[in-house]
Amino acid sequence: MSGMELKPEDRPDSVADWLDLLPVVKSAVDMPPKSKSWNWQTIWIGVSAIAAIVGFTVAFVVGLPTVLTWYQQHQNSTPKPTNLPTGGDRLPNTTK
User: Fold this and answer.
1) Residue 29: in which H helix or E strand, if any?
2) Nearest to 12 by CA among 27, 1, 25
3) How confident is the model at residue 50 (pLDDT cuts 50, 70, 90)?
4) HSE (side-chain half, CA atoms, 13 Å) at 13
5) Whole-number Cα distances in Å, 52 to 14, 16, 45, 88, 90
6) Its pTM surpasses 0.70
7) Of 13, 19, 21, 78, which has the fewest Cβ atoms less than 10 A away?
8) pLDDT tens figures, 3-43
9) d(CA 31, CA 91)
10) Angle, CA 58 vertex, CA 56 and CA 62 arms, to 5°
């Protein structure tokens, strides 16, 4: 609380003096970094993620040409309209 006094003469003169009043900051700065420990769950999550990425890549590489071939065959197999006359185009035969 002495670092937040209203009168400037009652507060610390520098940031270093102010930080000396905070034991949490001082101990956090002096602590060595925490080492990352690997457990089996972390390893299996990584292996599963890599397997999923490889699987999706293989499915895309194999599936894309198949889909494109099917699409091209589907476009070519649609019947094209012809100019054959329909029933309404002929005149009825009245010469009988």
Assistant:
1) helix 23-30
2) 1
3) very high
4) 0
5) 54, 51, 11, 61, 64
6) no
7) 78
8) 778 888 888 888 888 888 877 654 555 666 666 777 888 88
9) 102
10) 120
Paired tokens of 91: 């005149």
By CB neighbour count within 10 A (0-12 exposed, 13-18 middle, 19+ buried), where does 59 fall? exposed
Could you tell me the two tokens for 22?
């905070």
Residue that the structure tokens 């003469």 belong to: 9
- Assess whether pLDDT exceeds 80 at residue 86: no
Sequence-distant (≥ 6) Cβ neighbours of residue 3 within 8 angstroms: 11, 12, 18, 21, 22
Q: Which two tokens stand for residue 29?
A: 């700065």
CA 52/CA 74 separation, integer angstroms: 31
